[in-house]
Amino acid sequence: MESCPKRGKELLCDPAANKSTAFSEAEKQAQGLIGLVPDVVETLDTQLSRVLMQLGHKATDLDRYIYLLNLLDHNETLFYKTIMSDPARFLPIVYDPTIGEACLKFGHIYRQPRGLYLSMERRGQVREVLRNWPVEDVRFICVTDGGRILGLGDLGANGMGIPIGKLQLYTAAAGVPPAGMLPMYLDAGTNNESLLNDPLYLGMRRPRPKTEELFSFVDEFVAAVQEVFPDCCIHFEDWTGADAIHLLERYRDQCCCYNDDVQGTAGITLAGMINVCKVKGTKLKDESYLFLGAGSAGIGLSNLLCSALVEEGLTREQAQARIHMFDVNGLLESSRTDLADFQRPYAHPHAPMKLQEFAKAVEVFKPTTIIGVSTTGGAFDKTVVEAMCRVNDRPVILALSNPTEKAECTAEQAYTWSNGKALYAAGVQFAPVICGGKTFLPGQANNFYIFPAVGMAIYATRAKRVTDQMFIEAARGVADQVSAAQLEQGLLYPLQANILETELKTAARVAALVFDSGLAGVPRPQDIEAFIRSLVYTPQYA
């Protein structure tokens, strides 16, 4: 027996079906809405103009974030119409940098649940919990344990804001239909004492378990996802560095999964380096790299970069030799006994150097590129930038940590201290900078150029696995969409205003690779880009 379609108040409470003031007269009559909505019939554009007006009255971006999330809870179509109408304006509100403040205050600004909350107390019940989700064809689960949220550390349940925001970007930036998206928080407790003592904290009030206990529960989760949602890709997000790398290695050959902090960050940084090489007339293998930060982002970036260098003809060992790294305890070098297994390939023979000697390391190693994934705001100070200028005509400075206050240096600092010589990008968006009479456009090396495009390719092809080569191809696809004139102004990434078009072209390239690799779960179409475009979600009422 078929269930009755939703009517009346039940229909108005369904964000995927609600049209609010845009229901036609016939729909109002047929669906029991007479009197439940104003007696007008508005267009989606009229509704958008009201949203924009109301947003204009909000005092802060956090207020606008809260408003937009409330809109999403009531009218999904209007929410995406708003975000996609001006992505350069709204992506920084629904995601970085505003999402950082939203996560810090998540338990305080919480309105109603979105996504699934899976507690380790539900061991043995994970399949039943997943089946509580009302959508059967889930295509993406973005899951965090809140262990390392942006550059803010262990935020526990407050980290749920990240999966919610990430999945919105799949749709807003790459047109992936929102119906198959499931944000999840895997509650393994928290070691953040301030949260444990917060009466409004939404997670389990217990310290995090040992690694073996956590991984055992994640094993159950991954197996349950494959059973309940067989076409689902698992997107791991903002786990602690060691867990992020080890979990990716644990599952990448078992199921369709990836880690955005490891592979997405690497992809967008590689895209910037590809364009750096265009400006300088070099190849990736001609560059040398010094990292500040050797966690999941730094190691993931280094590993993907090495894969790209191998494609240019270097051996893996030669590629690794072009990379030096610092963590909180100083230079990764071969005499250290405190390194994780994934750090050791970048621990080369050298005398120990303390973290405070990073500027000296620039003079010693003479890198062409410094990359900050340290979450230490201001770490690339004037001494460091000036050292880079002494050893390079065009120093490359990538200050990738976020939110804004965590950036290793600002665009203005990089351009000013280098007298306009630096090729610069940050993990957050900075305003244009005038230096020496020239206007520079600092790019944002943000993962949202990469993972939504890869996501659309996975969605379209029903890819069986996710490979590093897919992120390398995505990096090339993004880099190739920056014009020569934009490169001249210092812009290493495409403008955000046209991000949907950028990502669809990138998705088509990644999808072609999926087909070429024999990983697709659907037949290869004659025109891959047209196939991708035929699947794009457009925010309009049915």
- Dominant shape: globular
Approximate helicity band: 40-55%
CATH architecture of the largest domain: 3-Layer(aba) Sandwich
Could you list the spans in which at least 5 consecutive residues all have pLDDT below 50? none
Please identify which CATH superfamily of the largest domain we are dealing with.
NAD(P)-binding Rossmann-like Domain
The main sheet comes to:
7 strands, mixed
Oligomer: single chain
Q: How far is it from the N-terminal to the C-terminal residue, by CA?
A: 25 Å
Rg over alpha carbons: 24 Å
Averaging pLDDT over every residue, what do you get? 95
Q: Assign the CATH class of the largest domain.
A: Alpha Beta
Strands across the major sheet, in which order?
8-7-6-9-10-11-14
Describe this structure in words.
The chain has 542 residues and is of the alpha/beta class. A 7-stranded mixed sheet has the order 8-7-6-9-10-11-14, with helices on both faces. A 5-stranded parallel sheet has the order 1-3-2-4-5, sandwiched between helices. Strands 12-13 form a two-stranded antiparallel ribbon. Helices cover 44% and strands 10% of the residues. It is built from 24 helices and 14 strands. The model has no long low-confidence stretch (mean pLDDT 95). The chain has helices at 8-12, 25-30, 44-56, 61-74, 76-85, 87-94, 98-104, 106-109, 126-131, 161-174, 193-196, 211-228, 241-251, 260-280, 296-311, 316-321, 358-365, 382-391, 411-417, 451-461, 468-479, 484-488, 499-516, 528-534, and strands at 116-119, 140-144, 181-187, 233-236, 257-259, 289-292, 323-327, 330-331, 369-372, 396-399, 423-426, 433-435, 438-440, 443-444. The protein has 3 domains: 1-42, Hemocyanin, N-terminal domain (Up-down Bundle), CATH 1.20.1370.30; 98-239, Rossmann fold (3-Layer(aba) Sandwich), CATH 3.40.50; 262-542, NAD(P)-binding Rossmann-like Domain (Rossmann fold). β12 and β13 form a beta hairpin. α14 (260-280) packs across α21 and α21 (468-479) packs antiparallel against α23. The chain is globular, with a radius of gyration of 24 Å.
